[in-house]
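Team,

Forwarding the record for the chain on the shared tracking sheet. I've put the sequence and predicted structure together so nobody has to dig through attachments.
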Amino acid sequence: MELFVPGRVCLFGEHSDWAGGYRRLNADIVPGFTLLAGTNQGIYAHVEPHPSALVLTSTTPGGAVHGPVEIPMDGPTLLQEAQRGGFWSYIAGVAYQMLTHYYVRGLVIHNYRTDLPIKKGLSSSAAICVLTARSFNRVYDLKLTVRGEMELAYQGEITTPSRCGRMDQGCAFGERPILMTFDGDRLDVTQLRVSRELHLVIVDLGAVKDTMEILTILNRAYPVAHTPVERGVQELLGTVNRRIVHQAREALETGDAERLGMLMQEAQAFFDRYALPACPEQLAAPILHRVLGLAALRPHIWGGKGVGSQGDGTAQLLARSATDQQAAIEIIQRDLGLPCLALTLRPGQSVRKAVIPAAGFGTRLFPASRVTKKELFPVIDRDGIAKPVILLIVEEALAAGVDQVIVIVQQHDLPAFQSLFDGPVTIENYNKLPRSSQDYARRILEIGRQITWVVQPAQEGFGHAVYCAREAVGNEPFLLLLGDHLYRSYTDRPCARQIVDAFEQHGLSVLGLRRTPEEQIGNFGTVTGIWQDEGRLLNLTEFAEKPTVDYARAHLRVEGVPEGEYLTVFGQYVIKPQVFGYLEEHITNNVRQRGEFQLTSALDRLRKEDGLLGLMVEGRRYDIGLPEFYLETLRTFALP
């Protein structure tokens, strides 16, 4: 299993994690708010199970390889190694926590590449702790959420001599920016979207600071401030920080780089005003201010500030463009001789393509499906128009914002589908149509220009049909809609748009869910998991294809779902492209279920290795795959 965990940079709100924690002792303290983002650089590893030990190999940023080191998976031994300190201690500390909370065996962790600078305020120690927690979680399918991995990584790191803050493990959320809120013992995480590229420069100031002394002195202001200086520290990490972080969040999400730069300068000014008097020996930071005051940089940056404790450790600058980012690096290296790191925050990948498999035989609708594909069966829409099912599904996909729809068909069925979307109505028949139908006929031809046809050479199952779209999809996420389901949203957002929005918000593959009576679950994929957003978003922990009622009762119950009901697949997904690799392995090695290549097992592997969310869709699914369901769809689909 291949894993990557990035470092993280604190954009705004340093120190507010521990400051907000004091609310458990003094409710008058303002909660802490921190805005973080993952770095481009990180730690890469190959991991696999081991029966009895940790077998560890590490590669430093310079390329030097250390190890292998073997540590028995024994509680006292792991604890001793963790408390010893050093690089291996972080892995041992997390392994100790895993062994304490779960029945796990060992791991082989081969850290074959590290391009994350260490000891530069980018949380390299937290990254290796998260990597270790994620390795145990995915190798042994512990069904931990990202928050669960983050918590065990934190507990593992503080088992070592390190005294990291709660924000450091924010790297668990990857390269996406997040807002962390610290309210006493409660930690909340909100994932954010960047609407445009933001170009940062991280500067290694190359000086020495005593972080422990800084933290010790600043902590004297809590839980109760007794002096003007201590009250200033609480004001800085409380009211001032809350305002700046929330304004920065808005600027980040709207792509207002100029405003972000101004807020960086404002945050630095407040830090110098309130924190510097508390610890002037450590926080004067002459090198930091030399960088921030460099006149040659001003045409290239919107602003900048120190990172973390700011005692000449690291600075961050917000460049005006990618070209200005490179120019700023060259100026700092030329004029000050300081090493720099480029960090670019990018918008999450958008969903541009949809896939609709329409190559099945339609066994349950035989013999009608022998002469007319079930995807071409008519259904009356609310506008009173009789539309083929495939047309309604394609319209759903386009309403979700995709640019291209890939339809999977059998070779002998291709002419029938193409005649709908590519063949214009003869002029004689066109003139017989009412004006509204003439307009819709032209609209269908426009839709046809956005459709790509892919032929499935043989009916080898749902997973095989999806795999046939690999070349057309390429290396990007895609929306998948079933060819025998229709959808009706209860809101002004189409059902498929809800799925796409969830993917773009969270950066994980998403499948739509609905509640289904247990007597029907034998017809559908059924899931269970842990609520991330109560009643709305589920971290999936198991995915079963058409389970028995007995199995569902034993394994697939979900908290809050009424007795006798389960969560089943809605028929809409957004899936990351690595699923094609899993499907290729199944096809190459002839791994079949019920004689066919299925998608479910590939999705379950995607869940284990990358994470999978389930979204309760605000809408209704209409199934046409069975005669009784098709009849119900005909009766109800056009109803308001």
